[in-house]
Amino acid sequence: xxxxxxxxxxxxxxxxxxxxxxxxxxxxxxxxxxxxxxxxxxxxxxxxxxxxxxxxxxxxxxxxxxxxxxxxxxxxxxxxxxxxxxxxxxxxxxxxxxxxxxxxxxxxxxxxxxxxxxxxxxxxxxxxxxxxxxxxxxxxxxxxxxxxxxxxxxxxxxxxxxxxxxxxxxxxxxxxxxxxxxxxxxxxxxxxxxxxxxxxxxxxxxxxxxxxxxxxxxxxxxxxxxxxxxxxxxxxxxxxxxxxxxxxxxxxxxxxxxxxxxxxxxxxxxxxxxxxxxxx
Length: 280
Prior knowledge:
Structural class: mainly beta
Number of helices: 2
Low-confidence stretches: 1-23, 25-29, 31-38, 40-47
Order of helices and strands: HEEHEEEEEEEEEEEEEEEEEE
Oligomer: single chain
Number of strands: 20
Number of domains: 3
Distance between the termini: 103 Å
């Protein structure tokens, strides 16, 4: 009896090993055996993505992947998450020591928007990216890519964060302009976002002049990013030319008659900018 049982089990195993992976199959006694459809590549994808909770203290996080191990182009091989509770300047540094491959990094905010263009790091190369991020939750993903059947990715990255001191907020229109006092700086930032045309593009500051005055406009920004300033009268007519922070500084004098004036600070690229503005 034991011999027959073993024989039946052996035959069932042999049949199962040669049958295609379908939703149903007939057993040796004609009964229906449920077999779920499973693709090998799905198993690889579900078990080969590394997940990290990212600390913004310069700690490295890494992963390896290769074509020979079953990875396909655009497979996500690593994902990390991090949160910030105040406006923060982020320095990203990524490395790829792989062979004929690219590690493709993307960073998303909690609304699903990319904060910058994708960061492609080819074999034996590094990439740096500076970001100005608003408070919230973020996700970073890494995709595998190689045109070579022997290609492999060996990548790692780190992120260093520094909080920004912001003294102006919600001054995005002429009606909510932040008043500027003589000799007192106001600081603000434009966050990094790939589709920056649909985000905050300008800040306003108001200046009240009681008598004819030689106004000194001084603005300094961090090296990363870019922005410009325009001086407006109370009817929003532009006075003089636009002022750009080509060397991270705007230093301009202009003689004004009594009245109310505005400074319009405008972002100039997706990286954003952090700046301080003062009038004397």
